[in-house]
Amino acid sequence: MSNGAFITVEGSDGAGKTTQLDFIESWLAARRIEVVRTREPGGTEVGEILRNILLNETGLSISNETELLMVFAARQQHLQELILPTLELGKWVLCDRFTDATYAYQGAGRGIEEERIAILEKWVQKDVQPDLTLVLDVDVTIGQRRSESRGSRPDRFEREASDFKLAVRSSYLDRGEKNAKRIRVVDASGSIESVQQSIVRELKDFIRRREPV
Asked: 20, 122, 149, 179: which is deepest, by most CB within 10 A?
């Protein structure tokens, strides 16, 4: 994929992803790294339509399996239309959520077996994986408080019970342990500045590891 890099940012609700994505995008741009920011589900016209259904259409009865298939349908379009072409141009892709979120939300949260998710992952992504994933970790209670303080209407996932959110967080931490080379867990419970300092350390380490020996 030329010199492009694929970075994803994950985290439970209220972890501060939007704030830190803004920061990462600016930090990379200041170092003259061309970066295209996107999100999942979404990133394309088709993806954004599916996103609206998944997050906002509360009147629809969406089964867990349908939800999973819609996530991967949006991902297939996203990869072919935006992510892969951008990487092949040598640019960096900064994505708000990717497949780790599917294992966390549809897997741990909804109770769908990891084996089923893995089949779709292999079919849709082939061998495509993020080069670096930053998981912003925060206690569920803190995340809930932060989400409520925003005053915006909660989406379908934000309205889920605490057990669902605990399962999501646990999945992220478990995946971080099992994929420590790619996934870096960042403590997001502190101040915005302290979280950014941790993120910068991870980004610098990532860039250093990409430099030719």
From this structure: 20
